[in-house]
Amino acid sequence: MSLRSHIVEADAAEEYDRAFVHLSADRVDCVVVLATSSVIEHAQRIAELARAARLPTAFVRRENVEAGGLMSYGSDVRNQFRQASFYVDRLLKGAKAADLPVEQPTKYELVINLKTAKALGLDVPLSLMIRADEMIE
What we know:
By secondary structure, this protein is of the alpha/beta class. The protein has helices spanning 13-25, 37-41, 43-52, 62-66, 77-92, 114-119, 126-131, and strands at residues 31-32, 57-59, 71-75, 108-113, 134-136.
């Protein structure tokens, strides 16, 4: 696919500003933002910077798409909390933590913000819309 990665680290508001300036100057085609607490905290600002730079941006958490990001694909956090309740129940009933199984997320979700896609001048393929768990308009 002739893709190359370009890593830019940012963790604070002013670092996100610099990161998107840097990404724009390097003429990247898209951005993938990994999940950190800072990414959720600054979701609105990151979405604004991505739209201003006209950069399609993918996230791990749906909260970033709800804040105006283009799309996310990641584990369904609500489902993870439901899974966690199983552990709480077992622990409260006397189970030992060491005896409980380690589980991976079982449900992943694709969320697309169609309003952001339109603002970026992107046509979301029908095949992607069909696969989406949710589309924000």
